[in-house]
Amino acid sequence: MRRPLVLLAALPLLATSACGFLGSDEEADIQVYSARHYDLEQAFEAFTEETGLTVEFLNGDDDELLERLKAEGEGTPADVFITVDAGMLWNAAEQGQLAPMDSPVLEEAVPADLRDPEGRWAGLAMRARTVVYDPEAVDPSELDPTDTYAALGDPRWRGRVCMRDETASYTQSLVASLIDLHGRERAQEIVESWVANDVQIMSNDVELLETIDAGGCDAGISNHYYLARMLEEDPDFGVALYWASQEGEGVHVNISGAGVVEGSDAPEDAQRLIEWLATDGQSQFVDGNHEFPVNPEVEPEELIAGFGDFERMPVDAAAYGSLNAEAVEVLDEAGYR
Ligand SMILES: [Fe+2]
Known about the structure:
The protein is of the alpha/beta class. Helix content is 37%, strand content 17%. The protein has helices at 41-51, 62-72, 86-94, 104-109, 148-151, 169-182, 184-196, 205-213, 224-233, 267-278, 282-286, 302-305, 317-322, 324-333; strands at 16-18, 30-34, 55-59, 80-83, 98-99, 122-133, 161-164, 200-202, 219-223, 240-242, 252-261, 292-293.
């Protein structure tokens, strides 16, 4: 007997979506807690068609859903937890909320740095956090190909750069990667140099891109798929993408990924869904949000393939997770807000 999804009164109300089961007496075979705010229905419906297993999901943000899993413990209705940040996957595993998967399928499909060495989670979609610019105001030769992120602190960029707010996991994981690469002291210097350049802080990546398009900033740092969305709506959108640090450490990438919930009562079906999302369902999972497949056998969709090939930094989920608190401190101490 499956447990129904019941909203806990003590937790904030989350938006719910389902493939036709939530709220009815029937319950789905696999229940997913998802921090992805992108189209999931299509992929889950295709999975159901192929396997006969039904899926329903509950949306929330990473932190909310993790707290919810911890509060529910063994009584959780959830089978799969999907997050949008590598540090958060590490964190969920560290806190004992994810059960190890023994999966040759995932070992084959997902590069080693994009999955947990102990099998507690696997990356499913890759997003690049790179530099974007106004081609009318910036010649790409102005951008430093060795350490493009740090170089935005050069005085030539004073008053010209937009970045994302300090509360975003995207910002925190980027800064954690700088600490991981360069040490805390150098990371602190870099963030201080951005602040000294009067970087304009934006509350989301769409606002950031629109500000660049409108001439309010010359350059910024954004996840690639937001730009892809804008270009899909308007091919003449006035922002271009620059693959950061191609002569240095490579582009900072993050992953959206999943693990089997420790308290799941359907761990085999849960693992089957995750394996499917990394293989047969890869395109359906990543393309709707213009993300890069983690599976090297799967081609990215056309629009982002048009951004060209790039070298990426290895993802170090343990570093992004364990350095998160330090990254928050660095941002705070630098007065980044
Ligand atoms: Fe996002």
